[in-house]
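Researcher: Re-running this chain for the archive, since the previous output was lost when a drive failed. Same request as before.
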Amino acid sequence: MERRDGDLLVVSTDPFNAETRLERQVGIVTPVGRHYVRDHFPLPEPPDRLVVDGLVASSLTLTWAELRAMPARSLFVTLECAGNGRSFLEPPAPGEQWGIGAVGTAEYTGVPLAAVIARAGVETAATELLFTGADSGSVEGRHIAYERSLPLDDAVHGDALLAYAMNGEYLSAHHGAPVRLVVPGWYGVASVKWLARITAIATSFRGFYQAERYVIDGAPLRRVEPRAVITRPTDGAAVGPGTVYVRGYAWSGRSPLKRVEVSSDDGSSWSQVTLGPETSPYAWRAWEYEWLPGYQGEHALLARALDADGAQPATQRWNALGYANNASRPVRIRVP
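Model: Regenerated structure tokens:
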């Protein structure tokens, strides 16, 4: 089945955008039918081949069968929409009003991007790779194709995949079939779906989704900021008395996680949680904390992730387009 809306929190229907219900997440992998979806336009006619051109020694045209015949790799990757958390901003920012469920983790299988680029041979004048999806539509009176670029060094020396499978099955339509780019550690905007063309270019790409959207202060969004979320107990729940098992997930794309902490006193003090094992450098980690409430009544629980570059903030990071708001979100519970 392509999707079951009951397993997703639908944000918009045309185009289709929906959140992962994090309270239903079990384990590391998010099932395909429960993994968040971000579409900018209606589903496109899927391309039947991949073209690699521009500043390359030899232009390529690969059918999907030819691509799948190349050596493959699988990676567990957490993808997060750059707008995750936008609905909590004050004053409000335009765009899809995501809560904190525009995130999910899957095992992607595909051909390393570096292998395809090596086959084409990039010329020395190239500085970026431009990725063009098959999806397009009207934005502010202009017809726009979905395109994003990657610096050549990140494309060639990183772990980006030309993925054709998700959790052991071929990609579904809403997840970019037949082939999508997956850029581990970067916001989902970089992971172009319905990939049709890769073009080696000499200058920085300035297309709509690189220069007018998915930017903060003019700079294109890249690596995912650290975030920890509480998935159990849920907001508004009655818990206890006795020990409460607080559970959730944490991730960061900018540097490895160092620890996760929980506060039950509005951030005045923090306690370190028990982190689950690392499945992949690019996948979220489960965590658990045993909390013994000190009194009956209302409590607000907070979680924060800390990586090598700092901590998840306690307050919002407001910007005009509402991106990268990774402020800790309180979960308010009651001890009867």
